[in-house]
Amino acid sequence: MTRISSDARRKPAGALAVGPRRFGRPKPQRRTSIVAPVSLLTPALLVIVALIVVPILFLVLISFTDYGRRSLFTGTFHVVGLAQYAGVFADPDFWAALGRTVLFTAAMVGGSVVIGMGVAQLLSVLGPVLRYVVTVVLILAWAMPNVASSLVWNWLFQPGYGVANWLLTSTHLFGDMTNTNWGQDPVLAFVAIWMLVVWQAVPFIALTLYAAQTQVPVEYFEAARLDGAGEWLIYWRLTVHFLKPTLLLMAILSVIWDFNVFNQIWLVSQGGPNNATSTLGVWTYKTAFVGFHLGEGAAIAVVTTLLLLAMTAFYIRNLVRSGEEL
Amino acid sequence: MTLLTELTRAPSAVGRTEQAPSRRRRRRKGRRVANVVAVVFAVVWVFPVYWMLNTALKPRSEVMTTTPLFVPLHLTWSNFVSAVTQTNFLLDLRNSAIVVVGAMVASIVLGVFAAAALTRFRFRGRRAILVSILGVQMLPGTALLIPTFLVFNHLNLLGSYLGLILAYVAAVLPFSIWVMRGFFVSIPVEIEEAAMIDGASSWRILRSVLFPLVMPGVVSTSVFAFIAAWNDYLTAYTFMKDQTMYTLPVWLASFSTPQTGTDFGGQMAASVVFSLPVVVFFLLIQRKLVSGMSAGAVKG
Q1: ipTM field
Q2: pTM, full prediction
Q3: Chain A contact set for B291 (CB, 8 A)
């Protein structure tokens, strides 16, 4: 942070005309006044402040009120202090949703990172034709809008005629699953949503890791092979070592994305059965926009945001630090 | 390269020469295993997309069969025809087009100007602004939805194009600034300096030198904005309660044709129609997606 403030002392060169020596080192950066950057930046900043900063402050504000369905029409509500937060923390549903969210996120992040690593390694050993095929397949899965992929999932796992049910039944491993209703079974609903999210998350991770993998100097692998290291050892000791920074970024981005998964859950199971797949996001939405307890919903949203910030504190610290090189 | 490694290895491993061929064979076997794994993976991963197309192209009688048909026996476009003509498709396509274009244009114009200011000029607070633009991306979608909903409710913006456009600009703008910034940074300062020596003012430099050079950036940022706005379900579903104002994702999620309950053939055809523009864009800008998303996009 100190570096930022010291940099701020670098005045735009336009200020030179007014008092050249007063600010120490004159930096001939750009011969214009501050007018140009300010007028270029102001519209965007105004929009960001009006549409993001103010709403976030407003969110915190209404989390201290009893804003509800009636307030939407009358505009009247009362300040209740921390009552909404106390209510949320006393609610067993909150803790259940929190536990589910952490479990979902861990399972999804773990699954997509592990499979993504495998696919990236696969891409790096394949010949050009198969590599092209796998890349196109990955992009197809990645590109599908998640509303469309959720509908496809409902059809794949449809009780009675779903092809996944038919395939599973024909393996004879799980008995007759023809009429299994995935969306109505707590565990199976989770399994189906997990597969959907991982299916769409793997391509980005795999392609990014593969791109990073191609940057590793070949000499290292040659040296390792000369020393007689096996392929597994080379992968764990060399490749993974070089991929560490990228892997970390992928893991953090996946945590943020998977923590916030909404559409897939909403469209596959609506958070049911009996809230069994209702994560914090789904629970917030239900509280705020189905029950219209907006004050309570706001309190949950604030808690969720803080949790996410705490979980990604490491990433945020790096972000702030990277500000020094921008 | 494998051969070279083996050759250079040979002298030092005199006592173990008989091991070399087995090692080579093992690696060739590894390649064959990799190919098999790749084929299996590709088949599994493409299957949902294939099944969507397969279902969409089947006549109604072949969609619901006790033993699924893995290829359509009679190819037909009737599902596409009914999905497009028997629903509000055209109306909702128009709604989507208005909102998506509005959000795209607004975020590009604002984003290009802001990125120019943040890269080509030095001023107080520049870095703080850049970092907060990245940080803003982390906020969960549902967190912004509640206050935006309330404010728009009071301003009578719910259910209007403008309200949805503003919500999308809020979602896309920070990211467009960030992506555009990358394109501005990659332009060498010398080009600007040359223009300055020729006596161009800074406005003139922006308009005649920098903006033409960042056009590729404008294109890929527009595609990002398009995809984000085109795909959004949650905001449109919450804001647009009037059926005639639905955008395509809401249309798709509530898809049903009048005659039957759930018409899976029609639903899959509708999914194909809705996904097609996005898939085409993805294939076009695939490389930039990888670098762009990890560069600072945190929204899914």
Answers
A1: 0.82
A2: 0.84
A3: 211
